[in-house]
Amino acid sequence: MTEQRDTRIKRLKMRSMRRGIKEMDLILSAYADANLAGMTTGDLDLYDALLEENDQDLYQWVTGQAATPARFGSLIGEIAQTFQN
Question: Which of 20, 42, 68, 71 is the most exposed place for a label (fewest CB within 10 A)?
Fold first, then answer.
């Protein structure tokens, strides 16, 4: 059974809010609220994969403290812009 788009977006928003560290809760939930509804299926797949990553790694990528894997480069750039605004 395939997950409905609206159900998937709700799940991704919840996973964005319930991270391991508070900083990532705030960063990812702000990004999710602003962007998930307008994403393509491919974009949602990539964001879903990103949420599988370790919070400490994500935080370092978003803040520029560590190099972002090429796969997530543009997505992390968008998240960082949301975080800085």
Answer: 42
